[in-house]
Amino acid sequence: MEQATSEAYPYVIEMLHITKEFPGIKANDDITLQLKRGEIHALLGENGAGKSTLMSVLFGLYQPEQGEIRKDGKVVEIKDPNDATALNIGMVHQHFKLVEVFTVLDNIILGAEDTKLGFLQKKQARKKVSELSEKYGLRINMDAKVEDITVGMQQRVEILKMLYRDNDILIFDEPTAVLTPQEIEELMQIMRNLKAEGKSILFISHKLNEIMEVSDRVTVLRKGKYVGTVDTASTNKEELSRMMVGRPVQLVVEKDEAQPKETILKIEGLTVPSKIHKNDAVKNVSLEVHAGEIVCIAGIDGNGQTEFVHALTGLEKPSAGKITLCGKDITKASIRKRALTGMSHIPEDRHKHGLVLDFTLEQNMVLQRYFEPQFQNHGFIKFDAVREYADKLIEEFDVRSGQGPVTKARSMSGGNQQKAIVAREFDRNMPLIVAVQPTRGLDVGAIEYIHSQLVKQRDEGKAVLLVSLELEEVMNLSDRILVMYEGEIVGELDPKQTTTQELGLYMAGAKRQDKEGKAE
Amino acid sequence: MKKSGNLLSKDGTRSVLATLISILIGLVAGAVIILIVGLCDSKLGLTEAWKGIRLIFFGLLSKGQQAGRLIFGFNSTNIGDMLFRAVPIIMTGLSVSLAYKTGLFNIGASGQYLAGTTASLFIALKMNTAVVSPWIVWILAFLGGILAGAFWGSIPGMLKAFLNINEVLACIMTNWLAANIVTWLFEGSGLQCTEGTKTQVIWKTSHNGVATAKMGLDKIFPDSQQIDGGIIIAIIIAILVYILLSKTTLGFELKACGSNRHSAKYAGIRDKRCIILSMALAGALAGAGASLYWLSGTTEFHWQTYLSLPGEGFTGIAVALLGACHPIANIFTGMFMSTLNVAGSKLSFFTGYNEYITDVIIAVIVYLSAFSLLIKTWLGKRAKKAEEKKIPDVVYTSKNMPEGAKPPVSENTGKEGNEQ
């Protein structure tokens, strides 16, 4: 009976005029989102636009100050995630919520176990899970431990968790951030299957390609405000990015042909031991980077890139190999020596390495050069010179902050923190720039800026070694691609002659080149 | 209104106010305890309680009593003694502050203090002042105390730098090591004071003619037996620590390393050296405090330390925390603590109260000083509210929000939004 009435109503979930304030901030300001039954609805916005807050409101983690939520046209109150579950709303979080040492099956039934006299009844559960996994094409190994399976499979486990609880409204929070191209393709197919079975999906993302490919409608948020809802079929990437950022955005980096010159960095047979495993994290890696080119090390996270960069920049000691920078052997040199010899380093983790978060912006700006005569006199810091220099960089690189040079780095937004690091490292004007995931977690506008800056540095004759996990970035920015898989360089590719699919095969270890550069 | 808003919005003002509020609450709590104890104890009663409360607040100015009435006024004995007793705790306070500012918790000031004590006393008493002039012996003893403290402090520093052992644990170990080693060293040293009934006490350094110069302070406080130039040296050292931490590249390195060891390392700062150096400097300060106290020539060291650690090390933690670990503030918080100490002795002298009641007050204040951050945040919010009233349409973004109201910034570009 109830089924019949609700079928007639087109919207399965409506969030009407939601306003959610945090002290001093309106994270959501009068936002309306209507999810149709059986559609894939994308929620698009930059970091900080209010997407996650809105979803947390729907999932009962926050209570909105204003507005109402309706399910099948009836007003409902969602006070906590249990209420959301009772309404058949399920969510795959960006960071999976799985118990690593439990098996896949245990994780799926956790919290919804069938018991008899206090004993677990896994047989029925196993049957239900295997039916579900067959129905939607979710390949899993029910008896493997979560810590042993791939990220892609972990995500499928999360999806099965929702399906096992008979959820029919599924929220995916940035699901593709951690996946390889092949896994992304598979996820898209799974989402289509789910839709075909009548599930309604909310898909949070800031990646336009995926949204264009899989969604039916898109709702765009900007700075906590509702911008609009459009049919995917009647829009394009340019329009969406304009809605998201508020101005036209250059999606593809404009750059000329690279003009590689002399060798700046030469690495021979670099091997780095792993801290966790017995195996080496980096195995016998040799490469060269020339002035005036961007060389990109592509690969899935955890294939030795971090250790490789640490060994290159001096944060870790290699067990074998030789590093030559600007003709000088720096294999055993200290970190400072390397930096002064000619290396700028934009680190992977801006909070762990890049900034002293409790220092002010100006202190962070001179973190690499406070000891230079320009900034100190007999061990006493020249505060005026530091301030002047910081002001110059802030102006030049458009670093925005609350109180200018005396802002605590911690209180700045991620994009501006990254800009501060980029400013500091570029201004040191070193022949080699090591940039590790320089656009991680940034929004389209900031990415555009940092990409154009990297190209500018290249054109000024710098050698740029880029380490990236983002395929689009790899394809757009680099002049040469080196693929790293399990600590080895398994292929060198020309971005103009390869496809993301081929790159994905190398990244997943399915394909590799021999020494002559031929595919095996 | 406008002025208070502006004042409150300054970080330093808020720190000072927070400290003063902590102290006031601590004193009031002490007064309440005195009142309760007084009312419960038939020997004390309300009059004694009223005396006690006045002594807690104004003990420093007590001039004794006449016909059962307390007299207050300028008392050079009290103030001179207060300044003298402030010296070691200002120094241990500086020790804790310097470590804290550079990211380490130095709970080992007691052990470093003992190391400094031992070295100073041995040098001051064993060197022949007939051959070497006493003031050179004094300087050597002072430097010896500093070096011994630095050495003792650097042990937990090295353990942390090379083996990643938590400095708090290592400090507790080195404290008790020091306590036992000191007893063992003095037992066979032949320095025992032979006078009268005293046992396990060694000579005053003045026995060997070594004593801290008075530097004219005995003219200002003529009745104080103890006052000497130690307080001036302590103040100079506090200023030097302040300059080191806030004006020099070395201070920059130490603070960077203390705040984020990884990013300091990334920036080419030798993190291990910084950690060891921080602890060594902290130890040197505690050791210097011990030297200044024992080289005064008026103090006798009771060397059986293996059962209890010197209180100066732990009072130093209170001095540092109460002063928000600011070296200059430590001078004042150290003096305040020693004022309470003087008040305590007056309390037991003039009333039926036990002087240890001041320890209760100190304990309350230390607890509150841990809360002083909270009080500071609260003051900050008040300041913000005041400003909001002035400009009602101001929008606080993640950038200009005051501390405390702000969500943790992680991978968040949130220019005007707040995703969590």
Summarize it.
With 520 residues, chain A is an alpha/beta fold.
Task: Describe the 3D structure.
The complex is a heterodimer of chains A (520) and B (420). The N and C termini of chain A lie far apart (61 Å). Chain A contains 18 helices and 24 strands. In chain A, helix 14 (383-397) crosses helix 15. With 520 residues, chain A is α/β, with parallel strands linked by helices. In chain A, a hairpin with a 6-residue loop joins strand 13 and strand 14. In chain B, helix 4 (76-101) packs antiparallel against helix 12. The longest helix of chain B is centred in the last third of the chain and has 34 residues, at 357-390. The model of chain B is unreliable at 1-5 and 390-420 (pLDDT under 50).
Fold topology:
The complex is a heterodimer of chains A (about 525) and B (about 425).
Chain A: H1 2-8, E1 11-22, E2 25-36, E3 40-44, H2 51-58, E4 66-71, E5 74-76, H3 81-86, E6 89-92, H4 104-109, E7 115-116, E8 119-120, H5 122-136, H6 151-164, E9 169-173, H7 181-196, E10 200-205, H8 208-214, E11 217-222, E12 225-231, H9 237-245, E13 263-273, E14 280-290, E15 294-298, H10 305-313, E16 320-325, E17 328-329, H11 335-342, E18 343-346, H12 350-354, H13 361-365, E19 376-377, E20 380-381, H14 383-397, H15 414-427, E21 432-436, H16 444-459, E22 463-468, H17 471-477, E23 480-485, E24 488-493, H18 500-507
Helix pairs in contact in A: 14-15
Chain B: H1 2-8, H2 11-40, H3 45-58, E1 62-66, E2 69-72, H4 76-101, H5 109-126, H6 134-163, H7 167-187, H8 217-220, H9 230-247, H10 249-259, H11 261-266, H12 271-294, H13 311-322, H14 327-350, H15 357-390
Antiparallel strand pairs in B: 1-2
Number of helices of chain A: 18
Low-confidence stretches of chain B: 1-5, 390-420
| Percent of sequence in beta strands of chain B | under 5%
Class based on secondary structure composition and strand pairing of chain A: alpha/beta
Q: Strands of the biggest beta sheet of chain B: in what spatial order?
A: 1-2
Radius of gyration of chain A: 25 Å
What is the general shape of chain A?
Answer: globular
- Multimeric organization: heterodimer
User: What's the CATH superfamily of the largest domain in chain A, by name?
Assistant: P-loop containing nucleotide triphosphate hydrolases
Give the mean pLDDT of chain B: 82
> In CATH terms, what is the architecture of the largest domain in chain A?
3-Layer(aba) Sandwich
The major beta sheet of chain B can be summarized as: 2 strands, antiparallel
CATH topology name of the largest domain in chain A: Rossmann fold
Largest interface: A-B, 61 and 41 residues
Strand neighbour order, sheet with most strands of chain A:
6-9-10-3-11-12
CATH topology of the largest domain in chain B: ABC transporter involved in vitamin B12 uptake, BtuC
Helix fraction bin of chain A: 25-40%
